[in-house]
Amino acid sequence: MKKTLVGIAFFLISGFTASVWAAEFYIVRDLATQKCTVVDKRPITDTRTTTLATDTIFKSRADAEAGIKEIKVCTGQK
């Protein structure tokens, strides 16, 4: 019985921490340079220098970099 409870507790704790530490990537646009970049921390939205280019939260850096190509304000950059 104790082993079962310990197993269940371990499963619940590991599931919770995995969701808390899941990677999240965002696309932000620098208003001064008009360039979009991928960041791994949620930015402060709509400051004087940066803004979120999209509300989408990406699960991998590769997905976010592919997403830059689909966002209208980011496609005009070199």
Which terms summarize this structure?
single chain; 78 residues; alpha+beta; 3-stranded antiparallel beta sheet; 3 helices; 3 strands; 40% helix; 17% strand
Describe what this molecule looks like in 3D:
The structure is a single chain. The chain has one domain (23-78). With 78 residues, the protein is α+β, with helices and mostly antiparallel strands. A hairpin with a 4-residue loop joins strand 1 (26-30) and strand 2. It is elongated and about 60 Å long. The chain is built from three helices and three strands. The model is unreliable at 16-20 (pLDDT under 50).
Please, how many domains? 1
Overall 3D shape: elongated
| Strand runs, count | 3
Approximate helicity band: 25-40%
Number of helices: 3
How big a fraction of the residues is strand? 15-25%
What ranges have pLDDT less than 50 throughout 5 or more consecutive residues? Answer: 16-20
Biggest sheet: strands side by side, in what order? 2-1-3
What is the succession of H and E elements?
HEEEHH
Q: N-to-C terminal Cα separation, in Å?
A: 62 Å
- What does the main sheet amount to? 3 strands, antiparallel
